[in-house]
Amino acid sequence: FDRKILQRAPGEVIFKPGQLVQVYRNDLDYTFKVDRKFLPKWSVPRRVKYRLRNSYKLETLEGILLQGEYSARRLRAFIPRTGTELAKKQEEHEKKIEEQRLENTQGRLEDKDNIEQAESETAQKDEEADEEADEEAD
Questions:
Q1: How far apart are CA 96 and CA 47, in angstroms?
Q2: Does any domain span residue 116?
Q3: Per-residue pLDDT at 10
Q4: Averaged in consecutive runs of 10 residues, what is the pLDDT profile of the chain (138 residues)?
Q5: Structure confidence at residue 111 (pLDDT)
Q6: Is 136 part of any domain?
Q7: Which of 25, 86, 129, 137 could serve as a FRET partner for 113 with CA atoms 20 to 30 Å apart?
Q8: Distances from the Cα of 30 to the Cαs of 69, 70, 79, 122, in angstroms?
Q9: Which domain range does residue 53 map to?
Q10: Structural domain total, the chain
Q11: Confidence at residue 109, expressed as pLDDT on a 0 to 100 scale
Q12: Is residue 128 part of a domain?
C-alpha cells in the first residue's frame, strides 16, 4: 500500500505558514451511513499556522486557531481561483507574512551587528588594558 502511495506522489510535501490547505475527512471512510455519499470529503479552505514535524496546526480564514494537529497525509494544497475574493485576500495575507518575515530577519541582523560591535569594542578595550599592564610591568 505504501509503495503505491510513494509511486503516485513521491517526495515529502511541506506546507508553508499562511498557505491554504484542505483537510480530508477520513471519518467518512469508516461509516456506513448513507449521508456519507453526499457529504464533501474535503473541508473548506484552512490556513497553515505552523508546522510540527509531519503535522500542522491550522486556523480558519478568519484567524481562529483550530483544535488538534493535522497530519500532512490528510492535507492537500488549496489554490483559489484567480480573480476571486479569496484569491485577493490570500495574496494580501502572503504579502503581510513576507513583510513580517523580512522585519524579523532585519531585526536579527541588526541585533547581530550590535553584538559584533560590542564584542569588538570589548576586545579592543581588553587589548588596551593588556598593553597598559605590560607598560606598567616594564
A1: 14
A2: no
A3: 60
A4: 65 83 86 81 91 90 90 89 90 88 76 69 70 67
A5: 67
A6: no
A7: 129
A8: 20, 18, 28, 67
A9: 2-79
A10: 1
A11: 66
A12: no
pLDDT at position 39 is: 85
Can you tell me the distance from the alpha carbon of 10 to that of 69, in angstroms, rounded to the nearest whole number?
Answer: 23
Inter-residue contact 93 to 18 (CB < 8 Å): yes
**Residue 91 resides in a domain:** no
DSSP string computed for the chain: -HHHHHHHS-S---PPTT-EEEEB-GGGGG---GGGGTS-SB-S-EEEEEEETTEEEEE-TTSPBPSS-EEGGGEEE--PPTTSHHHHHHHHHHHHHHHHHHHHHHHHHHHHHHHHHHHHHHHHHHHHHHHHHHHHH-
How many beta carbons lie within 10 A of that of residue 20, not counting itself? 20
Residues 111, 105: Cα–Cα separation, whole Å: 10
